[in-house]
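Priority: medium. Attachment 1 of 2:
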């Protein structure tokens, strides 16, 4: 049995979903430019249906890709929670696809899949229950280390091949001596 993990609060997940909507909207704008530039007219029913299916596929690929590669989209990283299987392992392809396909009608039908969390014993959304996944707050040790901890010291920069040179920041330089202002420009 997996250890008990914290579940992100419902307002936190809803805020993440709002952020997610903005990112997906931007993604769909970019994806649309390519198609509309090549096809041009989308007034025929067949072309419009293909275009909508294409946008659905782009959205599905976005979510499934990020859920399978780290369990987090950018908003999920920002709000510090991730998707895992019910047993605490990384979600499978089947779970990610089922979660996406069930979330669409669950959110679209007056948000019934979101309202579900108010009555669920673990406060999970309906699409998480059906896909056998859950959202958790990862422990601090599993978070990405800060960039400062990855910057090599000046001595190790020369001796480690393949490291990237980071120019010194203002905080790493010695303080400048202060001269009293004489009222004249330098």
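Attachment 2 of 2:
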């Amino acid at each position: 049995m997996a250890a008990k993990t914290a579940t992100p609060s419902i307002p936190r997940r809803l805020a993440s979903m709002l952020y997610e909507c903005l990112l997906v909207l931007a993604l769909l704008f970019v994806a649309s430019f390519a198609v509309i530039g090549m096809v041009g007219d989308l007034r025929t029913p067949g072309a419009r249906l293909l275009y909508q299916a294409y946008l659905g596929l782009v959205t599905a690929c976005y979510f499934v890709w990020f859920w399978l590669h780290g369990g987090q989209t950018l908003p999920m990283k920002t709000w510090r929670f991730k998707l895992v299987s019910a047993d605490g392992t990384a979600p499978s392809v089947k779970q990610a696809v089922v979660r996406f396909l069930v979330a669409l009608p669950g959110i679209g039908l007056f948000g019934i899949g979101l309202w579900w969390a108010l009555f669920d014993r673990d406060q999970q959304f309906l699409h998480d229950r059906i896909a056998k996944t859950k959202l958790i707050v990862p422990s601090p040790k599993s978070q990405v280390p800060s960039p400062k901890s990855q910057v090599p010291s000046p001595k190790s920069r020369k001796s480690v091949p393949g490291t990237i040179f980071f120019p010194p920041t203002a905080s790493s330089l010695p303080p400048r001596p202060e001269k009293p202002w004489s009222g004249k420009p330098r």
